Amino acid sequence: MAKRGIDISAHQGDIDLKTLKNQIDFVIIRVGYGVSGSIDSKFKRNTELCQQLGIPFGFYWYSYSLDVDGAKKEADYFLKAIAPYTPSYGCWFDMEDADKYKEKHGMPSDTVLKDMCYAFCEKVQNAGYYAGVYASLSWFKNQLAGDRLSKFDKWVAMWPTKGRKQRGLDVNPDEETDWSLWQFTSDGRFNGYKGGLDTNYAYKTKYPNPKFGEIIFNPKPEPTPKITGSTLDLAIRTMKGEFKDGEDRKHLLGDRYNEVQDFINHIYSASTESLAKEVIDGKYGDGDKRKIVLGKRYDEVQQKVNQILQSTSKTKPITKGCKVRFTGTKSYSGLQLANWTHNSIFDVIEISGDRVVIGKGSAVTAAVNIRDCQRV
Length: 376
Prior knowledge:
With about 375 residues, this protein is α/β, with parallel strands linked by helices. About 30% of the residues lie in helices and about 20% in strands.
């Protein structure tokens, strides 16, 4: 059977928990907020009053961090503050943007938001507490979607309405049972408090802390992203910004990160001649692909490629079955060819005088003038 409880902070002032005790089963208390470690002015008062009255309690921290380091700092402040107490309803990282702070100061990417939650919860769990994330249902479906946080519990805010107004306490716990904790209203009305209170249903009988000898749930292993494609393709996608940078890139590329990053680093550090020879060997693809992956080094490398090809083409005649680089832009009859054909490598399928049929394997691309071909 679900338990009903409230979550509170200094916003409720000196709330009369003694009067509320017989109307609730638990309380989740705000410990503090922000990367500077601001402690809620009623945290100690509310916690010790719950202890005196025998009300089970949990804790939460409202996050203002904008990066992973900030979330870790918040976890440090949180753990220092709760050290004297034993929460029985979990320790929660409040990930939302109710006052638009994150939006005003540069909303982190979804990946960073998830990494922030992971960093906070991991630190709290490693310290021996039951850890989880609080957010709205919308955030869990969008910003925090995916498997990144699967090893931690979820406290979900979703307030049913009727006639565009919250239904308050008129919500049956059986309406939603998919979550561990469900904040079903911010307008719970109780004797002993004027105004509405955040009210929740808890569907677990225990939120265990291994620090105190309690057995915790078996966490799911952190999933490793499955990325497919060649190293070249992934490098191109990276250069186009698909995998972002820094910690985002590491997470999104998963076990392919080192392979792709080494490939990109090589392009930045290798000599022009080394890159030119690799281009001739086909390492960096053709046309736009090569331009993207070589980036700012494309012009210098392509110039070197042309020099190498010109010197070798003088001693190696173009023959059927060899490979050539097409340096022109038009077909033998003068038609403009697609941009990607310029500087691309083709197989010579047929030669007749100065007319050369080029293509890939046996698939014909075009007939071109031999003067626009360089043997490779």
